[in-house]
């Protein structure tokens, strides 16, 4: 997934953090930013939102999660995840079937000039009074 993208996606990495210390491909669901530009520009870098149930292919998480998003920096720099962890989330589908998926949880974001996706660096800066929480 492009770290600068919006909406839900899949993050992939190679890691040796396993009992055998072997390189393995890991994938996890992620949502770095809200899925609409209007929501994105209203959220500051590192905004924590109220608890919500996550949705994956029409299935809802069995628990509510308080997500943190990487939105907009107070200047023209880009905001991307800095510290993350992976949570095993259980989803209940309309048929009653339970799915378990790895989901990226953002703990902190960082503002920097190395913008992975230039669109977000070109969005006009909103004044603090116009920003909303999610």
Automatic annotation (TrEMBL):
Protein name: Cellular communication network factor 5
MF terms (GO), sorted A to Z: heparin binding; integrin binding
Keyword field: Disulfide bond, Secreted, Signal
Keyword Cell cycle: no
Predominant cellular place of this UniProt entry's protein: secreted
Pfam families in UniProt: Cys_knot (PF00007), TSP1_CCN (PF19035)
Top-level taxon of origin: Eukaryota
Signal sequence annotation: none
Gene Ontology annotations of biological process type: cell adhesion; positive regulation of cell differentiation; signal transduction
Classification of source organism: Eukaryota, Metazoa, Chordata, Craniata, Vertebrata
Species this chain originates from: Xiphophorus couchianus (Monterrey platyfish)
